[in-house]
Amino acid sequence: MNLFEAFWRSIFPEFCLACHATLLRGEELLCLDCKLELPHTDYTTDKENPLYLRFSPHIDIKNAFALWYFNKEGIVQTLLHNLKYHNHPEISHYAGISLGENLKKYDFKTQIDSVIPVPLHSARKRQRGYNQSAGFAQGIAEILEIQWSDDWVIRNKATQTQTKKNQEERKKNVDGIFLVKDFTHIKDKNVLVVDDVITTGATLLSFMNTLREAGAKNLFVACIAMAVQN
Ligand SMILES: [Zn+2]
To answer: How many angstroms separate the alpha carbon of residue 21 from the centre of ligand 1?
Structure first.
């Protein structure tokens, strides 16, 4: 931090996006305590992890990664809430850099060609102002030095609420909601699809089926956080 930044911060202090403590010099987005408390998964080195096992019965995927565990009332929940509802897309980018560095460390850099966030319906995107998974894709792409975009695939319709539907209706509800606009970085490519949080996985599965039909080679999945039942 230079003198000007120090001066600026003394007038406009920044706060930790998880616990709201005043950030110290050199701290960014999170205070050191919260940073150390982040519940990182070991999914990068554990192929048969719960996220992989959730998708592998339904679609052939190469690997699945989650950066953090999602624990209710914990700091990850606060971060994701700030990302989605309080105009903090930088949290998504921070998570992307963190996972990207992890993927690079374990040699996934050469296995992945492009990254695509699950597209938001345009009305939803206008409402929020950004796709909450886009920064995550961008951060990963920066570290792995590969292409990313949320313009290659669009979402035709907003998915209705899933809760009151049976399994067959749910499947119908997510079928045919995505449309590929640009095949360049999808056809014959190894594609990493990313989302913020994975709950049922139905939307993501539909998205991956669309990419596979568009000629994607190997599919990888990553999310910022995943809830694991104890
Ligand atoms: Zn904090």
So the answer is: 6
* Residue 79 reports pLDDT greater than 60: yes
pTM of the model: 0.88
pLDDT tens-digit readout, 138-180: 999 999 999 999 999 999 876 555 555 566 655 555 567 899 9
- Give me ligand 1 centre to Cα 7, in Å: 22
| CA–CA dist 43, 198 (Å, integer) | 14
Q: Which domains does the chain have, with CATH numbers?
A: 1-37 (no CATH), 39-226 (3.40.50.2020)
Ligand 1: distance of its center to the CA of 20 in Å? 6
Q: Which residues surround ligand 1, an ion (CB under 5 A)?
A: 16, 18-19, 21, 31, 34
- What's the CA-to-centroid distance between 85 and ligand 1, angstroms? 19
User: At a CB cut-off of 8 Å and minimum separation 6, what does 115 contact?
Assistant: 137, 140, 141, 144, 146, 147, 148, 191, 192, 193, 194
Ligand 1 mean position to 38 CA, how many Å? 10
Q: Where are the beta strands (DSSP E) in 81-227?
A: 114-117, 147-148, 153-155, 178-180, 191-198, 219-226
What pLDDT shows up at residue 49? 96
- The pLDDT value recorded for residue 167 is 60
